[in-house]
């Protein structure tokens, strides 16, 4: 691997100026989306102090990075208005400085995103367990972009719930973009050892509802995945 000379590095920052600035803007958008998810994790954590402390620390770091990115965009706008795109020594110097800043911000964003994924997964798990232990919770949701491992997380939560015996029964059914309600009803019924001898969806729903509410002293966790 050939190490670029200082001059080559300097010119590289200047010539890749537009790419570095645009890449930074895309990374900021990605960070914005991740920030919303972290806020949701904080909200779902209830009174879990560990979750709140982690999210507050993470958000403080994110806000600092995003502040630097915003300042750089403002600098870029000012430069474009005052110097245009002419190849002057002054422009090259500004391009170099701002391009280098943009690349460093991208590296910082990549690092903070990398660090957040594992921690947020563990904290999401803790937040879910806290919510499921709360007798006042009747509905708990997990949301996020595709590919984040929500299905795996749901499976891990179900495993812990069974091990800790938080519920008397755990039922998992998979939804789709075009859900087959009859199949979903069947999945839930199978887990409850219930025979659905009704033909209509509403009739089968009534049987499921009656079965779930029949045992007043039992707690049944119904998990709907891929909604």
Account of the 3D structure:
With 227 residues, this protein is mainly alpha-helical. It has two domains: 6-133, no CATH class; 167-225, no CATH class. It has seven helices and two strands. The chain has helices spanning 6-15, 17-44, 49-83, 89-133, 150-164, 181-191, 201-214, and strands at residues 169-174, 220-225. Strands 1-2 form a two-stranded parallel sheet. α3 runs antiparallel to α4. It is elongated, with a radius of gyration of 26 Å.
Topology:
Blueprint lengths: L5 H10 L1 H28 L4 H35 L5 H45 L16 H15 L4 E6 L6 H11 L9 H14 L5 E6 L2
Parallel strand pairs: 1-2
Protein name: NB-ARC domain-containing protein
GO molecular function: ADP binding
Keywords: Coiled coil, Plant defense
Any idea what the shape is? elongated
Q: How many structural domains in the coordinates?
A: 2
The structural class is mainly alpha
Q: Summarize the helix and strand pattern as letters.
A: HHHHHEHHE
Rg over alpha carbons:
26 Å
| Major sheet: arrangement of strands | 1-2
Number of strands: 2
Largest sheet, described in full? 2 strands, parallel
Task: List low-pLDDT spans.
Answer: none
| Integer average pLDDT | 77
- Fraction of residues in helix: 55-70%
Cα(first) to Cα(last) distance is 48 Å
**How much β-strand is present in the residues?**
5-15%
Number of helices: 7
């Amino acid at each position: 691997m050939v190490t670029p000379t200082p001059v080559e590095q300097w010119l590289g920052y200047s010539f890749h100026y537009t790419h570095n600035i645009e890449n930074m803007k895309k990374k900021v958008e990605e960070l914005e989306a991740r920030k919303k998810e972290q806020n949701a994790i904080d909200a779902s954590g209830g009174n879990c102090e560990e979750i709140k402390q982690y999210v507050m620390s993470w958000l403080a770091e994110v806000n600092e990075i995003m502040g630097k990115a915003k300042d750089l965009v403002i600098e870029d706008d000012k430069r474009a208005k005052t110097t245009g795109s002419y190849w002057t020594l002054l422009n090259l110097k500004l391009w170099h400085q701002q391009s280098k800043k943009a690349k460093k911000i991208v590296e910082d964003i990549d690092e903070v995103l990398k660090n957040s994924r594992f921690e947020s997964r563990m904290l999401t798990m803790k937040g879910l367990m806290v919510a499921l232990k709360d007798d006042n919770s009747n509905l708990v949701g997990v949301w996020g972009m595709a590919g984040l491992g929500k299905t795996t997380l749901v499976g891990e939560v179900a495993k812990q719930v069974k091990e800790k015996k938080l519920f008397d029964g755990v039922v998992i059914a998979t939804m789709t973009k075009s859900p087959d309600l009859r199949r979903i009803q069947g999945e839930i019924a199978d887990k409850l050892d219930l025979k659905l001898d009704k033909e209509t969806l509403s009739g089968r729903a009534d049987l499921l509802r009656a079965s779930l509410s029949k045992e007043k002293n039992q707690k049944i966790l119904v998990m709907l995945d891929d909604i």
